[in-house]
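User:
Care to share a sequence and structure tokens?

Assistant:
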Amino acid sequence: MMLDAVILAGGRGSRLGGLDKATLRIDGERLVDRAAAAARGVGAGRVVVVGPEHTRAPGSLVVRENPPFAGPLAALATALPHLDATWTLLLSCDLEHPDAVGALLAEQLAEHLAPTPDPASTAQDGWVLVDDDGYPQWLAGLYRTAALRRGVEQLGDDGDGADADSRLTHLADLPLRALFRAGDLRLTKIPAPGSRTADIDRPEDLTRARAIPDSQPDPDPEGDPTP
């Protein structure tokens, strides 16, 4: 199996007044189901949703970080033991356009896997979308699974042979970017317009997303690849 996916769906939704993001609907479909469908659409064999049981998407496995709300790094670490594929698509459930995000990242993987005379391409650990302000959107990325595991182990190891539960405790509330630094992942940053990387954090974001017909991203004015 080449590709699995992890959907993070266990946040507090604080900026949405505590609403459960995963179950909010656009065009009648829950956000978590849209993200899972996007992952399936680009070939993910296994989809792992990290969140409460009610966030289970069709055909997915649901796991929960312990303690709950320990942050996206602990959530990812909880999902990793359930992955078998070489590559992992990592998505937040609140992406406004998960299908567009998935398609752009899958395009990068396809190009990477194509026959190439450049031996340096085998060193690639993944791709992450970068927004209009130059910030990496770590929850809109595609990564080598072994590299994610390496980063988690390095961050969670307390130097005394920490077991899995102890490792997760060490990871609680750490920012996700810490994993990519600790694991020294070799990532390519892919510029993407804000309309593609947008997520639903605030009530006005949800209003905007529901107002766009079929929830399609705006055309890319600079000619970046589109799905």
Summary: The mean pLDDT is 86. The helical segments are 31-41, 72-79, 98-113, 145-156, 164-171, 177-182, 194-197, 203-211.
